[in-house]
């Protein structure tokens, strides 16, 4: 029923004025589209940030595409995206379901879980950098030498440390999203399931998970697109090192532009970053099905 | 190390860490820098951007004194964290909104300012005021010269890179600080047997790695090798001295010459100095600023004479003179070519009569630094830090070649590639030939 009436209502009843979108559109135009246009323009130029901007055709693009550092940055970004997703989704989903319960102790634990949300990325990075210092860090503080690993200096290990710190920072946020999602599921569904004799696991798999479909899509999109924007945390924590082991695309772009002073190449990298981000976001929207507003509560 | 001392050292680290944090937000900051913080034109007074830490207090006092005496030629001074400054000043200068006084290191960045027509030629000023030119140690003044003209005037302390060592550890081992590379290699197993790391190295910060390459190349092949690299001569990185230096570095890594997990250890927060001070490592190769840092953060290391210093060892059969130095000859002031007449007048007046006044020079000495001016030997000898200060002063005075740190001397793009690839050498992810090929590629562009 809803399917046929919605489009009709849209054409006949005047909704809120389109002008209400104007402030947001102006902001979007001024701070997203215009800079994006400038970046696209700069990617066809050569500029060291100081001298004149000279047109360079596809010069920057050729350099960026041929540079093994770009491939490495894309690869590292993909790895961080996948590993972050694999770590964060299950943990925040389960924590979200857990903290959605109305028990006192859960509310108390939830407050503790959400604490990292209060900290800035830079503060988190500085704290972990100090904790992970092999000589004067956590291992020395509590006297457990086994913890004194080459955490941030081992090219094979550093990426996973970065993923772990990112997870520590962002799991609370996604837990919060899931908590909200779970609390919206009508209790009647669970009551019916209980009458039908479904256990907890069964309820989780057959009610909670399907009902959370759109929450999962939202959280996944934020996670995947967000991992394309990890910059501050990694910049402070590892600076992209050791070698180039944690030089993600956004960090690579920054270092190319502001450290190596190659604005042309950095702009080309920026365009690639935008393209990858859009592709990932669109893909996830597609996976969620076209009709995003369809109700999941038919018959309730 | 007790917690109080560690706390002090941490504070030292925090400044550097805060520097990196600030530069993370530099992208956002630069936008505002273009719009509002452009103190360049119109305000009348000259503007100066300095760096946090190090000479901050001395500089502030020097400028305050100048302003009090010259209310009509006043200078407004702001301080920034090191890394944030480098990004901010470049963007501001590029937008024509830079400060009157541009703080710098000479080298590649200075050259890019000159190429962009942003730095004023100071040669005529020096010709008119020979007393300004003549007050400097010559090896230091040369570094502000681009294409035969002076664009930057030294403004502070000489910071050659030295080899620092823990005297107690050496006494226990019954060893002497190494004078040659083979002595250095022979010390490695000796310290390892005692459970002490031969060298501390803040590998995570990347730039300390560079000090090893700079000195080894100079000691093996002499200063010509890097002069060719800076001049962008095709294939300059292929010089055998570079390959030999890189091989020696990897041999030292293989022998266990550096502290375990040195690639996790950051020099930005003083972890390398802390390792030597606590006797966990025997030696560290670091800049001249280490002494000044100790004086403010670890005064007991100086009082108890825990830390000693010497020059980087020679390499047998090498061409470079042991008197050659590498490091930061000084920091420099350049003047913006966009400065107004009144700003310029104030700036030139300060350079002549405010900077390196008796009081300013003395305060630099008292902070544990060596001012880069002639004729201060007596005053250095009167200082409580005379051992270190006269040592550095004589080195700086005697040397014919004071090579600027390579990451400052090269263009920013080359410096970035150099730091990453050298990191890979220390990590043993690439061999010297791959390094040479990658670095040559930065020249051919």
Automatic annotation (TrEMBL), chain A:
Keywords: Cell membrane, Membrane, Transmembrane, Transmembrane helix, Transport
Transmembrane as UniProt keyword: yes
A Pfam family it matches: BPD_transp_1
tRNA processing as UniProt keyword: no
Membrane-crossing segments per the record: 20-44, 82-100, 107-128, 157-178, 222-243, 263-284
Gene3D superfamilies named in the record: MetI-like
This protein's name: Sugar ABC transporter permease
Automatic annotation (TrEMBL), chain B:
Pfam families: SBP_bac_1
Record key words, sorted: Signal
Signal peptide: 1-37
PANTHER family in the record: ARABINOSE-BINDING PROTEIN-RELATED, BLR3389 PROTEIN
Name of the protein this chain belongs to: Extracellular solute-binding protein
């Amino acid at each position: 029923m809803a399917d046929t009436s919605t489009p009709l209502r849209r054409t006949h009843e005047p909704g809120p004025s389109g002008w209400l979108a104007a402030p947001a559109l102006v902001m979007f135009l001024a701070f997203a589209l215009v800079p994006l246009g400038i970046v696209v323009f700069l990617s066809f130029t050569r500029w060291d940030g100081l001298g004149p901007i000279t047109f360079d055709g596809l010069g920057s693009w050729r350099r960026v595409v041929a540079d093994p550092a770009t491939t490495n940055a894309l690869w590292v970004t993909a790895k961080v995206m996948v590993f972050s997703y694999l770590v964060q989704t299950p943990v925040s989903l389960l924590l979200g379901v857990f903290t959605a319960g109305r028990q006192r102790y859960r509310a108390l634990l939830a407050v503790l879980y959400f604490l990292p949300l209060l900290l800035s990325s830079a503060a988190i990075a500085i704290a972990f950098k100090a904790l992970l210092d092999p000589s004067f860090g956590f291992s020395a503080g509590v006297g457990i030498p086994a913890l004194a690993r080459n955490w941030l200096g081992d090219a094979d290990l550093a990426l996973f440390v970065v993923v772990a710190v990112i997870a520590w920072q962002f799991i609370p946020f996604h837990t919060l999203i899931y908590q909200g999602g779970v609390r919206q599921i009508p209790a009647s569904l669970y009551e019916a399931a209980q009458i039908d004799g479904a256990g907890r696991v069964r309820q989780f798999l057959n009610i909670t998970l399907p009902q959370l479909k759109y929450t999962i899509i939202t959280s996944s999109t934020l996670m995947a697109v967000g991992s394309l924007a990890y910059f501050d945390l990694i910049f402070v924590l590892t600076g992209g090192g050791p070698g180039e082991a944690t030089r993600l695309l956004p960090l690579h772009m920054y270092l190319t532009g502001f450290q190596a002073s190659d604005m042309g190449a950095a702009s080309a990298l920026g365009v690639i970053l935008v393209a990858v981000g859009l592709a990932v976001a669109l893909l996830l929207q597609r996976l969620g099905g076209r009709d995003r507003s369809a109700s999941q509560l038919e018959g309730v | 190390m007790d917690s109080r001392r560690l706390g002090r050292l941490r504070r030292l680290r925090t400044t550097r860490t805060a520097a990196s944090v600030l530069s993370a937000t530099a992208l956002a900051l630069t936008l505002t820098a273009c719009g509002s913080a452009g103190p360049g034109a119109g305000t009348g007074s000259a503007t100066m951007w300095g760096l946090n830490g190090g000479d901050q207090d001395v500089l502030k006092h020097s400028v305050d004194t100048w302003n009090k005496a010259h209310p009509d030629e006043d200078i407004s001074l702001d301080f920034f964290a090191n890394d944030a400054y480098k990004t901010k000043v470049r963007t501001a200068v590029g937008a024509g909104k830079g400060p009157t006084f541009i703080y710098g290191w000479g080298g590649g960045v200075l050259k890019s300012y000159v190429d962009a027509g942003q730095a004023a030629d100071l040669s005529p000023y020096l010709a008119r005021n020979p007393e300004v030119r003549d007050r400097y140690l010559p090896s230091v003044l040369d570094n502000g010269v681009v294409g035969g003209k002076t664009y930057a005037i030294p403004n502070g302390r000489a910071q050659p890179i030295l080899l620092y060592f823990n005297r107690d550890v050496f006494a226990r081992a019954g060893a002497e600080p190494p004078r040659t590379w083979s002595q250095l290699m022979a010390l490695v197993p000796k310290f390892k047997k005692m459970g002490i790391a031969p060298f501390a190295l803040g590998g995570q910060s990347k730039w300390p790695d560079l000090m090893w390459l700079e000195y080894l190349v100079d000691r093996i092949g002499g200063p010509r090798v890097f002069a060719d690299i800076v001049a962008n001569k095709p294939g300059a990185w292929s010089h055998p001295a570079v390959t030999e230096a890189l091989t020696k570095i990897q041999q030292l890594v293989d022998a266990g010459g550096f502290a375990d997990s040195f690639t996790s250890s950051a020099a930005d927060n003083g972890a390398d100095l802390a390792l030597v001070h606590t006797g966990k490592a025997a030696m560290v190769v670091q800049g001249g600023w280490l002494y000044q840092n100790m004086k403010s953060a670890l005064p007991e290391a100086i009082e108890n004479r825990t830390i000693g210093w010497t020059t980087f060892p020679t390499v047998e059969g090498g061409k470079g003179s042991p008197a050659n130095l590498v490091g930061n000859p000084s920091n420099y002031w350049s003047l913006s070519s966009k400065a107004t007449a009144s700003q310029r007048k104030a700036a030139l007046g300060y350079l002549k009569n405010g900077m390196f006044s008796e009081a300013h020079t003395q305060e630099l000495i008292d902070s544990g630094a060596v001012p880069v001016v002639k004729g201060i030997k007596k005053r250095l000898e009167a200082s409580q830090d005379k051992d270190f200060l006269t040592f550095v002063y004589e080195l700086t005075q005697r040397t014919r070649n004071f090579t600027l740190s390579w990451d400052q001397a090269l263009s920013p793009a080359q410096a970035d590639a150099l730091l990453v690839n050298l990191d890979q050498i220390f990590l043993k992810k690439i061999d010297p030939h791959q390094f040479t090929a990658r670095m040559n590629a930065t020249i051919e562009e």
